[in-house]
From TrEMBL:
<dbReference type="InterPro" id="IPR039425">
    <property type="entry name" value="RNA_pol_sigma-70-like"/>
</dbReference>
<dbReference type="InterPro" id="IPR036388">
    <property type="entry name" value="WH-like_DNA-bd_sf"/>
</dbReference>
<keyword id="KW-0805">Transcription regulation</keyword>
<keyword id="KW-0731">Sigma factor</keyword>
<feature type="domain" description="RNA polymerase sigma-70 region 2">
    <location>
        <begin position="30"/>
        <end position="97"/>
    </location>
</feature>
<dbReference type="Pfam" id="PF04542">
    <property type="entry name" value="Sigma70_r2"/>
</dbReference>
<protein>
    <recommendedName>
        <fullName>RNA polymerase subunit sigma-24</fullName>
    </recommendedName>
</protein>
<dbReference type="InterPro" id="IPR013324">
    <property type="entry name" value="RNA_pol_sigma_r3/r4-like"/>
</dbReference>
<comment type="similarity">
    <text>Belongs to the sigma-70 factor family. ECF subfamily.</text>
</comment>
<dbReference type="InterPro" id="IPR007627">
    <property type="entry name" value="RNA_pol_sigma70_r2"/>
</dbReference>
<dbReference type="InterPro" id="IPR014284">
    <property type="entry name" value="RNA_pol_sigma-70_dom"/>
</dbReference>
<dbReference type="Pfam" id="PF08281">
    <property type="entry name" value="Sigma70_r4_2"/>
</dbReference>
<keyword id="KW-0804">Transcription</keyword>
<dbReference type="InterPro" id="IPR013249">
    <property type="entry name" value="RNA_pol_sigma70_r4_t2"/>
</dbReference>
<dbReference type="GO" id="GO:0016987">
    <property type="term" value="F:sigma factor activity"/>
</dbReference>
<feature type="domain" description="RNA polymerase sigma factor 70 region 4 type 2">
    <location>
        <begin position="125"/>
        <end position="176"/>
    </location>
</feature>
<dbReference type="GO" id="GO:0006352">
    <property type="term" value="P:DNA-templated transcription initiation"/>
</dbReference>
Length: 190
């Protein structure tokens, strides 16, 4: 089971209603509560601090513009997380560096193929290793492991297939294992 999302922050209904009425102090409280999770998600998906800061600002602007659309039929944090994911993925699409070829064959994943090695517990090593992965692969890994999205949900967000998500997860996890193993060996020999 995936760890709970860092976005899983409960907001009192009255705070959301105050923000919907345009109260600046309510927006400020919401911003403070969600600034870190939005920035972290954006950083993990984009891999760049400046872009993550831009995603944070764009997400919050969109929140302020669209808060009247929030109806309460899902948790507020889930609604905001979706805005943040969309903003980050939109930035990645705009970069348009090198499109990855979509895999046509279905990838069967065993549990051991998607579990990260124990070294992944070290956040600094993991962040460094994630930064070495292609954008799409890093995004799939983060959305799957950290945010708890399914392959179908990731595919819909990225405009790809579930097979693409599965193959990126499998390849990325293998690459992360290699990167983290190398980092461990270098660190232990230093």
């Amino acid at each position: 089971m995936s760890p709970p999302s860092s976005f899983a922050i409960d907001l009192p209904d009255h705070l959301v209603h105050r923000a919907q009425r345009g109260e600046a102090s309510a927006f400020e409280q919401i911003y403070r509560r969600f600034e870190r999770p939005v920035f972290t998600l954006a950083l993990r998906l984009t891999g760049q601090r400046e872009e993550a800061q831009d995603v944070l600002q764009d997400t919050m602007f969109k929140l302020f513009d669209r808060i009247g659309e929030f109806r309460g039929d899902c948790p507020f944090w889930g609604w905001l997380r979706q805005i943040a994911v969309n903003e980050a993925l939109m930035r990645l699409r705009k970069r348009n560096r090198q499109p990855l070829a979509e895999d046509s064959d279905e990838v069967d994943l065993e549990a051991h193929d998607v579990m990260l090695p124990p070294a992944a517990a070290d956040a600094a090593l993991l962040a460094q290793a994630l930064g070495k992965l292609p954008e799409a692969t890093r995004s799939v890994i983060w959305l799957y492991h950290a945010e708890g999205y399914t392959h179908d949900e990731i595919a819909a967000l990225m405009g790809k297939t579930a097979s693409f998500s599965k193959s990126q997860l499998a390849r990325g996890t293998r690459r992360l294992r290699d990167l983290l193993r190398i980092t461990q060996e270098v660190t232990s020999h230093a």
